[in-house]
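Table S2 (text version). Query chain:
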Amino acid sequence: MTEDSARTVCLVKAFETAAQSPGNSWSQADSALAGDRAAQEVGTNASDETFIRRRAELAWERITARQPNLAHLKTEANWHQWLGWALVASALVSGVIVDQVGPDNLINLTSLPLFGLLLWNTGVYAFLLGQVTGRLFGRHAEAPGPMRRAIAAVVGRFRSTAPGTANASFRTAYWSDWGRVSYPLSKAYVSRLLHLAAAAFAAGIIVSLYYRGFFNEYVAGWKSTFVPAAARVVQWYVTAVLGAVPSLFGIPPPAADELAALDLAQHPAGVGAAPWIHRIALTVGFVVVLPRVLLAGWAWLAQQRLQRKLPIDLREAYYQRLLRRYRGAGARVVVVPYNYQITPRVALGLNKVVHELFDTDARLEILDPIPIGREDSPPDAIFSPELAGRFVLFSLTSTPEEESHGVLLRTLRAGTRKGPPVVGIIDESAFLNRFGKQGERLDERRALWVRFFDAASLAHAFCDLSDTDATRAFAGLEFANDTSRKDRR
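Corresponding structure-token output:
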């Protein structure tokens, strides 16, 4: 969907899932009404994306009608445009300010700014080529570099401090989700900025050389403490590096006597700098400015493409709930206890949790408990990819052990690559009935369980299933499949 539509979808998702204050209430009836109206408009044969997009548009109209102060969020710029142009302009000014001319109006052909500029950009091209080659051979893309992360952090700071009176949790949820969804778009934008800034910096150096050379008489040469060794390096540098590109435009490589005249130790007067300014300008232009402009154009094309079609992972639990209602399919949720005979009261608590986490028409299936010794062969029903949710239930009265609980958790993790991930529930009802709310003992037992779940990389929740408000223990957990969870990292 387009960037604008994706933004609306993320806004509505954040509004519906974030904890709202009483004045910002959004009831289940409002959610159902938006879905029903969208279903009527798009019809039964519409794609999932079309339904989600239209439902979000209708819901956002209703939300902003009640709370007009939220309307600006949809048109709020993803990035402050002036920040990007300021970066490019500052790079241009920095290039102009960088002094390539030393004392006595000398242009040192081996100066660090010029040599470093060429070396840095060559290294960047090699890195980008390595990334492309890696993707061709199936390697995952690397994490963004420190400069991209720094710029993203600055942009994020502007986002988080943007004015408005919207509920803080809603804004936090929105920017967090939108930041993840729009990451490919942000990456293309930041890449374009960095390439343009690099081109502007190099262009600034060229402008500086010609401007100063027009009003001053400059000479070119080089100096070194290690003259014999440096002479060979400089000869290669000025011939192969500064002479290669200009030779394509009819400027011949420097002759032997011209190279000898550049040695300021032998010829303190140096040589006229005009030919070397032309060589430097052509080399920098074709090694830095032109490639960077082309890379910026490529990033701009990627940005335009993503603005027209920005992908959203509709496998996430929030979208799956909406789509199940649209398709008329109830959610199927499976809970398998481990060495735990649940009571009717706990079963009622599980049913209430499932209905509140998924849908009121969700179907809960409580499987027979897994006995000790069968940890490596859980029931097949827990592995069905069509499930809306799957849970493994433990009692806090049990002490987790590596050869039993650890084996079971790893088995469940390995066997649920498709569909929603397994989420652990540690029921505290029996523990609290036996020991009461002994804070230290309760914390120690919880910490022991946390280590086991963290080792298996599984989400979990501690709750008293006999409590009427047990669902609050699941706040913050996403019941999405492993693929979407991996993509969000």
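Notes on Table S2: The two ends are 22 Å apart (CA to CA). The longest strand covers residues 389-395.
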